[in-house]
Amino acid sequence: MGRRDAPKDGDRRVGRRALLIGGTAAAVGSAVLARDELARAWWRVPGVDKPRRPGEVDYAGARWVAASEANWRRADRPADYGIDRVVVHVTQGSFASAVQVFQDPEHGAAAHYIVRKDGRVTQMIRELDVAFHAGNRDYNERSVGIEHEGFVERPQDFTDEMYEASARLTARICARYGIAVDREHIVGHAEVPGTDHTDPGGDWDWDRYLRLVRRARTARA
Ligand SMILES: [Zn+2]
C-alpha cells in the first residue's frame, strides 16, 4: 500500500509521534513546541526519510523483487522531486531477463515496475526513489517507470491482461500524485527528450491504454 492509500496508517503514525513530542514538550514545559512540531507535518518535509519497511510495495497488486541499488538513487519523492509523469517501456526480452538485468549492478538501469503478459505486476524500486529508466535525469526524477514484458516488434506480446493490469497500476499512480491522464503525462520511453530508445513502439495502442486508465480511475473513485 502506498502512503496516500493508507490515511488511517498515516494517522496512527502521527498519533505515536504526537505522544513522543507531547512527552518532550511536558519535560521542557512548553506545549507550544508540540503544536509547532505537529503543524509542520514532518513526513512531508524534504530530506526527512519516510518510514520504509523491507518488501513494502506502493501498489497493492504488486509483488516485491528488489533491483540492484546501483540502478536507482535513494530519494524522498514526492517531497524532494514532484512526480508528474508515467513512462511506458517494453523490456525487449522476457520477464526473467528483465529482472536479471535490473538486479545486475553493472546494468545501470531499472524501472519501478514490470508488468507481465499474464497481468502480474512486480515492483523492483520504491516510488520514493529515482529509478534509472528514462535515460534522462529530469525525467527519471519526475516519473514512475513501468516496463512491459515483450518485444516492440511483437504486438502479440501486448496482451489484454497486460494492458488492463498496467492501466490499473497507472491509474493508481496518477491518482496518488494528481497526474493528469493524458498523453502529455503518460508517455513512451521513445518520447523522453534525448533518448535513442524506441519503446513501446508503434504497435502500443495508446488510445486503448488511456481509455483503460481512465476507466480504472473512474471505477476506483
Ligand atoms: Zn525503455
Give a quick set of tags describing it.
6-stranded mixed β-sheet; binds zinc ion; 6 helices; 13% strand; cell wall biogenesis/degradation; Lysozyme-like; 2 domains; 221 residues; N-acetylmuramoyl-L-alanine amidase activity; N-acetylmuramoyl-L-alanine amidase; disordered N terminus; alpha/beta; Amidase_domain; Amidase/PGRP_sf; 8 strands
Can you describe what's shown?
With 221 residues, the protein is of the alpha/beta class. The chain folds into 2 domains: 3-44, no CATH class; 62-220, Peptidoglycan recognition protein-like (Lysozyme-like, 3-Layer(aba) Sandwich), CATH 3.40.80.10. Helix content is 35%, strand content 13%. The protein has 6 helices and 8 strands. It has helices at 7-28, 31-39, 95-102, 137-142, 160-177, 206-220, and strands spanning 62-64, 72-73, 85-90, 113-115, 121-123, 130-131, 143-148, 186-188. A 6-stranded mixed β-sheet has the order 1-5-4-7-3-8, with helices on both faces. Strands 2-6 form a two-stranded antiparallel sheet. Strand 4 (113-115) and strand 5 (121-123) form a beta hairpin. Helix 1 (7-28) runs antiparallel to helix 2 (31-39) and helix 5 (160-177) packs across helix 6. The longest helix has 22 residues, at 7-28. Zinc ion binds next to loops.
Please write out the topology.
Elements (H helix, E strand, L loop, with lengths): L6 H22 L2 H9 L22 E3 L7 E2 L11 E6 L4 H8 L10 E3 L5 E3 L6 E2 L5 H6 E6 L11 H18 L8 E3 L17 H15 L1
Parallel strand pairs: 1-5, 3-7, 3-8, 4-7
Antiparallel strand pairs: 2-6, 4-5
Helix pairs in contact: 1-2, 5-6
Zinc ion (ZN) binds next to loops.
